[in-house]
Specification:
2 copies of one chain form a homodimer.
Chain A: E1 10-11, E2 21-23, H1 47-50, H2 56-63, E3 69-71, H3 74-83, E4 88-90, H4 92-98, E5 103-108, H5 119-131, E6 136-141, H6 145-157, E7 160-166, H7 167-172, H8 174-182, E8 186-190, H9 196-204, H10 212-225, E9 229-231, H11 238-257, E10 264-268, H12 273-287, E11 294-300, H13 305-308, E12 310-315, E13 324-329, H14 351-358, E14 363-367, H15 369-383, H16 389-408, E15 413-418, H17 426-433, H18 444-451
Parallel strand pairs in A: 5-15, 6-7, 6-9, 7-8, 10-11, 10-15, 11-14
Antiparallel strand pairs in A: 1-4, 2-3, 4-5, 12-13
Chain lengths: 458, 458
């Protein structure tokens, strides 16, 4: 009996094996990511500049490029125990279906009611808000994954939560809205008449169905104008990548437990929260020169920030009220086509990942929507799990790498992040099932136009 | 440090600890459940009578009242490994929220794409159909949980699947339909024009939105008229209770691993598939006089087959084409009100459970819908999981028992079955969130009328 055969379908860590600290990959970067800039002064933003918007403890995490490990507070560890560790699954059935010598593993983050990895950071952000004695927090949500996760976290700590949900999603995704309401969040379609910016946009664009940028602006306005409230965000920020390192740390612990050495690590990339978390400890080894891995970011061809964007300072939001971040971006005015992977339709990319990519520590590829749903369907039928469209980008790339192994006969070990389930994405699956899904790739000219609107920063 | 503190939030069995056999509780019953009767002759149905409808191996399981253990075939064990073992969760947060000395555990069956325990029997039934060399299987589905589970199982074994979905659900639950289609099932709204019975019903009742009884009749007609097809069913039958014993066997193994002795075991009861499976090994001990447990079936007040029904022979379907079963029933003509727990809206109850209940081995209670959703909301906010309305009946009963312990100071150990998630039940949650949910209890007169239509059997 080979060692191989002793590896179970699902590797679960015991509670005592679960990570007790988050890992901050910035600590091992020789060249640090560029700082956030004040959009008015173009000066780096410090602790005091960020205090009106974010919770104190989270700002410290955001600005700390040196501390490698942060203790996870016990209250958060206890919440993690309710839905973590997530399983590292050996995709035996998919390997068989592909007839590949590759060994495929996926870290499955979808086994919680929010349906994705977003809960890992939501519970941390809610905790620090509660600890600071705040009454509540505000946020925006597009497709609703982040809003759902934050509703669960806020309910757990008895924190008030106000979610601005892009109006078109509010109307078209009533089920996501109801999950948030069941957890006690107030959900307002954006643009609303409750904020200055909302009233202005409604007046200027009567009948608008909203945008993520506008929802962010509304959430920030309410947070900064309400006593005892702060604003929180589910991706892009350094603090989010820090919290999400729990994914990678568990993955590494599970692999180490069975002496498995991955060759390739793959994650889908929108704002970078999942990818940054999944690869963190592996990237750390790579940065320290201890190990080498191929690390691949997968983005939609319709919103290709790493593969076709520029590395420059840009606004994090389309409303241009947030700090400037240096990142791979398509321009904050870039309007992605209606790709069904809502979580990947972000114009920019985490500054940490952008820097690592720019320094050559990872690869990036883009894939088209229809091929992603083909992969999703195959995965669902062989591995049982109906994947989120976002996650399916990583599935597609992992399958392609496994098929290359079939050609070459190499027994590579591939690990990918399965960030979530597709239970609230069935409109997209219906389109695919009906043969009505299309692909869209922005033209060079469109991108050029969008790049022209980037803010001028030296 | 007390022993108590060493119990993790979630108890997972390792692959080697997973049950390798199903347990047949009928083997330990001194008085066996009454046999199925041929509706025309009123004679007990034997192997040959059932062959045109059901798979051979499944008929053997259906009729076998003596074999205590059935080996689970390796192909099924491998599929189980993809989503099992399911966790036995210690509800620490719920206990704290209720401030109860009781210890609450729940066996969570919702962590798979079908969203419920139904997959445990679906994969078994699909396997035996494939093994028999059949081309495909047919079934009906109401709310869609069973149809989804069977789609996943059929895709795994490359079996054709034809699902007749009650027309009103087909139209109102397009997402469930799309999951089934993604797994390759053909889904037909019932009544259809594809069957004789469907055409007849459409002609007699133009514009009808269908019923479960009609869908069953269509599925049986197609199975018996198509070469290489058989019909399968997701609850009520003895074979289903047998397959679902995996729930109880895992629960017992997990409890034994930590030396935990339950006092009360609680499950929701519709057709009886979950309850029968959860309690099987515990009931076995009780029947053999080795242990005693309080075992409680929880049903909706709107469809109270155990608490207000009669123990008599009745049709399993409203179309009256299936065998007669002796069970607690409200009459096959009973039309339950629009309770949102679709999986519990069945007029009858598993003959095995009916017999055990009639012989005094278990209790039954009924609970009202609004109180069930109150419990569901509290559970979601404290334990993180958004529960299915069906499962929430067990939550409600478990919470009530825990609150009784608070009054008496007793440290009872309560185990309940959390059969699934409510991700496809958000129309119901919306009603609850909007304060528009109502309760309905059938009147004694309504029940009396329904009982009058029971078939006459000595």
């Amino acid at each position: 009996m080979s060692k191989e055969q002793t590896i179970p379908y699902k590797i679960y860590l015991s509670e005592s094996e679960m990570p007790k600290q988050w890992y901050n990959v910035r600590a091992d970067m020789k060249d640090k990511p560029a700082p956030l800039l004040n959009p008015a002064t173009l000066k780096p933003m410090g602790f005091e500049d960020l205090r009106p918007v974010f919770c104190d403890e989270l700002i410290k995490q955001e600005l700390d490029n040196d501390t490698a490990y942060f203790d996870i507070p016990e209250e958060i560890l206890n919440f993690y125990k309710m839905y973590r560790p997530s399983p590292l699954v050996r995709a035996y059935c998919l390997e068989k279906a592909l007839d590949t010598p590759a060994k495929i593993y996926y870290k499955f983050e979808g086994n919680n009611t929010s349906g994705s990895h977003k809960l890992n950071s939501a519970i941390a952000q809610a905790y620090y808000a509660k600890k600071q004695g705040l009454k509540g927090i505000t946020t925006e949500t597009g497709a609703g994954q982040w809003g759902t996760a934050l509703s669960m976290a806020s309910a757990y700590f008895g924190l008030d939560l106000k979610v601005f949900m892009v109006k078109v999603s509010y109307e078209q995704k009533p089920f996501r809205r109801e999950v948030m309401r069941t957890y006690g969040a107030s959900v307002t379609p954006s643009p609303s008449m409750e904020t200055e910016v909302g009233r202005k946009i409604n007046a200027e664009h009567p009948g608008t169905t909203g945008s993520l940028g506008c929802a962010i602006s509304e959430a920030v306005e309410v947070a900064t104008h309400s006593e005892g409230y702060r604003y929180v965000l589910g991706s892009v920020l350094n603090q989010v990548v820090l919290h999400q390192s729990i994914i990678g740390l568990e993955t590494k612990a599970a692999l180490d437990k069975y002496g498995i050495e991955p060759d390739i690590i793959i994650g889908c990339a929108g704002g970078g929260s999942n990818l940054g978390g999944l690869i963190a400890p592996f990237m750390g080894e790579k940065l320290r020169g201890e190990k080498d891995y191929r690390i691949i970011a997968v983005e939609p061809a319709s919103c290709p920030s790493l593969t076709r964007g520029v590395y420059a300072y840009d606004f994090c939001d389309t409303g241009m009220v947030c700090p400037l971040a240096k990142m791979y971006t398509l321009g904050s005015n870039f309007i992605p086509s209606a790709n069904h992977a809502g979580g990947l339709r972000y114009h920019g990319m985490s500054p940490v990942l952008s820097k690592l990519y720019d320094d050559g520590y990872m690869e990036a590829i883009s894939v088209e929507q229809t091929s992603v749903f083909e992969a999703a369907e195959k995965f669902a039928r062989t591995e049982g799990i109906l994947p989120a469209p976002e996650s399916s980008h990583a599935i597609k790339a992992a399958m392609d790498e496994a098929l290359k192994c079939k050609e070459t006969g190499e027994e590579k070990t591939i690990v990918f992040g399965l960030t979530g389930t597709g239970y609230f994405d069935l409109v997209a699956y219906q389109k695919y099932n009906d043969g009505e899904m299309t692909d869209f790739i922005p033209s060079d000219e469109d991108l050029k136009k969008s790049f022209a609107t980037l803010p001028k920063v030296d």
